[in-house]
Amino acid sequence: MVDRELIRYYRARAAEYEQIYYRDKPGRRAELEAEGKRLEQLVTERTVLDIPCGTGYWLQRMSRTADHVVGADIAMEMIEQARDKTVSGPVDFVLSDLYSPAFAADSFDVIALGFWFSHHPHQSYNRLFDMITYPLRSSGLVWMIDNNPPAERPVFQSAGQDKHSNHYVRRYLEDDTEFTILKNYFTRDQLEAVFSPRFRIERLTCGRNYWSVVLAPK
Ligand SMILES: C[S@@+](CC[C@H](N)C(=O)[O-])C[C@H]1O[C@@H](n2cnc3c(N)ncnc32)[C@H](O)[C@@H]1O
Fold first, then answer.
1. Does residue 97 have its Cβ closer than 6 Å to ligand 1?
2. Closest ligand 1 atom, CA of 145?
3. Where do the structural domains in the chain lie, given as residue ranges?
4. Measured from the CB, is residue 7 less than 6 Å from ligand 1?
């Protein structure tokens, strides 16, 4: 399940990753800001697992209102970026593989997955859903945000599909190092069909650049 090429890509990209949030694209910035506000509200006085936390963009935001945020990522390079951030409340970091997490059952009120769902292969959603529901409290919620194709331009370069209809894209670092990584895109109908068997969809927001969802396990 661990995707070594994806990990290699993100480890190499850690120092430049967060530029995705600060591009001079008012439409994208407005959608991200609106989602940030909804997320702050969702996690107010909650205990949150942010996995994978990456450079801590959403973790920093959630720390404004959450009781406690645990950021977990497989890449120490990402966690180091996240640790450098100024946060507003208690946070901790764990070096952890999303698919073999070291978290006890019933530990968190919210599991946050920023820009992860698109990297998970179609053929094994149940494994991901098992992983994210296990550490959740019974009243807990899952939050996700991810890309729609317009958010990728002008860097969007398709590299084809595999037999499970997973889509691959080419990505380049600032020094032109090339990576090919799994990245899937979804319509609203596809998201509803994927989540509905296991979750009640509390909110599904499909913007031009991003989609986001709040899910309650059934
Ligand atoms: C697209 S970034 C998302 C970071 C953050 N959630 C955000 O929204 O900015 C993907 C992250 O997944 C991490 N990652 C990749 N494979 C992983 C795995 N098997 N377990 C945990 N983290 C992983 C990478 O190191 C990277 O930080």
1. yes
2. 8
3. 4-217
4. yes
4-217: CATH, from 3.40.1280.10, 3.40.50.150, 3.30.450.180, 3.40.1190.20: 3.40.50.150
Q: Report how far ligand 1's centroid is from the alpha carbon of 50 (Å).
A: 10
**End-to-end C-alpha distance for the chain, whole angstroms:** 25
**CA 97, 168, 81, 174 torsion: positive or negative?**
positive
* The Cα angle at residue 167 between residues 161 and 172, in degrees rounded to 5: 110
| Tens digit of each residue's pLDDT (9 = 90 or more) over 152-175 | 766 667 889 999 999 999 999 999
Q: Decide if 41 contacts 218 (C-beta within 8 A).
A: no
Q: Is 74 in the pocket of ligand 1 (CB under 6 A)?
A: yes
pLDDT at residue 24 is higher than 90: no
